[in-house]
Design a protein that fits this description.
Elements: H1 21-31, H2 34-47, E1 51-56, E2 70-73, H3 90-101, H4 106-115, H5 128-135, H6 139-149, H7 162-171, H8 180-192, H9 196-203, H10 207-218, E3 240-245, E4 248-253, E5 259-263, H11 265-271, H12 277-314, H13 316-320, H14 331-338, H15 342-349, E6 353-356, E7 359-362, E8 370-372, E9 379-381, H16 382-395, H17 404-413, H18 420-429, H19 435-438
Keywords: DNA-binding, DNA-directed RNA polymerase, Nucleotidyltransferase, Sigma factor, Transcription, Transcription regulation, Transferase
Protein name: RNA polymerase sigma-54 factor RpoN
Pfam family, one: Sigma54_CBD
């Protein structure tokens, strides 16, 4: 056998998508929400002296921190007068009360020590035994300190468990039901799990009295410290606006709050006079970068607007009908209609918002899966079915709540055909308890 090697040339044509830096930038800008886009552009201004970022904010009152390379067009509002006060933390609130109410003693030192172990919800995260080891104080002294700590505001602070938190609140409430404190102290689990017959026998009280205690407990605050340590309120800047005009829906791209880039022409003309070839080359690169970024910002806005227009077109009933029904809709449908990839649609709706006269909604919320109904050969969105289940439960007799099977039968009357298991799943997603836990024992 003879083996021979032959060298030759041949041509082969292939198609390949090259992910250029500019394309990556465009994809990045599309997936950013307005706040992220602003941060991205501001970072670019630090690298590119030919670029300035402008944001128009005259229609929206929301705090914006001025950064280098960013200017803001606004009306004559006194923005300094609108800066909110700093929120007081739970820790600072407690420290202030301790210094105002208790004299400088060893007991106060122990209270200050315990405050260090109060979490953001107001609960004590250290045991008395651990506190004894770390402070050298006696158990009695630390229990006294804890008692004084639990007398502070907010009511329930310093509790070591949910049960204790509720008991502290009941103890200070003159309107609490007579048996509420002792029931929580001795039969908390039974009350929560609706094993009320045990409580009924133990105290010889009527079921409607236990129902009153149960209703009262639900009004108490399980997280007394949650009102503190909150971040400043964030305001949503909608990307598109939908307005109804004589039965027609207009979809507009908002300009307010959306950053835009401006070319520093004066600086460019001045630096262009330089005879240094490196400076000229630098200006050329920065000008090209600016052009790409500006194009990307404009393309981002146009893509979001196109996607929003298609969404509004397919979900017109939501904007025109007071019941706000949503039709089943998937990403691939919008992608096919606009001749783009599904990932492009996904980036266009994540973190992007749509403003209407009746509220602001994330674009992603308009996408719902559907169930095909054999009886009508129609496809209903899961949102519509969940809403129907919620309406049925709301209208039921609370003393004889409907089982999941009964809800299936009532839905079937409305020509909605789903299984009992699906009803149970949707009910749990809606936060609706089972029929046994929905039963009430009113007087």
């Amino acid at each position: 056998m003879r083996f021979e090697q032959h060298l030759g040339q041949s041509q082969k044509q292939t198609t390949k998508l090259a992910m250029t830096q500019e394309l990556k930038q465009s994809i990045q800008m599309l997936q950013y929400n307005t706040e992220d886009l602003l941060s991205f552009l501001e970072a670019k201004t630090l690298e590119n002296p030919l670029m300035e970022v402008k944001v128009t904010v005259d229609e929206y009152d929301y705090p914006i921190k001025t950064k280098a390379g960013t200017s803001y067009e606004h009306d004559s509002k006194e923005w300094l007068n609108e800066v909110p006060d700093e929120t007081v933390s739970l820790f600072d609130h407690l420290i202030k009360q301790i210094h105002l109410n208790y004299r400088e003693t060893y007991l106060r030192q122990l209270i200050l020590f315990l405050v260090e172990y109060i979490d953001v919800n107001g609960y004590l995260t250290i045991t008395i035994e651990e506190a004894v080891e770390r402070t050298g104080a006696s158990k009695i002294q630390l229990l006294d300190a804890l008692t004084l700590l639990q007398m502070l505001e907010p009511v329930g602070v310093g509790a070591r468990s949910l049960r204790e938190c509720l008991m502290l609140q009941i103890e200070k409430d003159q309107q609490a039901p007579n048996m509420a404190y002792i029931v929580i102290e001795e039969y908390f689990e039974e009350l929560a799990n609706r094993k009320w017959s045990i409580i009924e026998k133990a105290y010889r009280i009527e079921l409607f009295e236990i129902q009153e205690i149960f209703d009262y407990i639900k009004k108490l605050n399980p997280y007394p410290g949650a009102g503190f340590n909150q971040e400043k309120e964030m305001y949503i800047i909608p990307d598109v606006i939908v307005r109804e005009v004589k039965g027609n829906l207009d979809v507009l791209s908002t300009k307010q709050g959306v950053p835009s880039v401006v070319f520093q022409q004066a600086y460019f003309d001045k630096m262009k006079q330089s005879e240094d070839t490196e400076v000229i080359e630098y200006l050329k690169d920065r000008k090209a970068e600016f052009d790409w970024i500006k194009k990307g910002v404009i393309q981002r806005g146009n893509t979001i607007l196109r996607v929003a227009e298609e969404i509004v077109k397919r979900q017109s009933a939501f904007f025109l009908d007071a019941q706000r029904p949503l039709a089943p809709m998937q990403l691939k449908e919008i992608a096919k209609a606009l001749s783009v990839h599904e990932s492009t649609v996904s980036r266009s709706i994540n973190g992007k918002y749509l403003e209407t006269d009746f509220g602001i909604f994330e674009l992603r919320s308009f996408f719902t899966v559907g169930l095909t109904q054999e009886l009508t050969d129609e496809e209903l969105s899961t949102n519509m079915i969940k809403k129907q289940i919620a309406n049925i439960v709301e209208a039921e007799n609370k003393q004889k709540p409907l089982s999941d099977q009964k809800i299936v039968e009532l839905l079937l009357i409305e020509k909605i055909q789903i299984s009992r298991r699906t009803v149970a799943k949707y009910r749990e997603e809606l936060g609706i308890a089972s029929s046994t836990k929905r039963k009430r024992y009113d007087r």
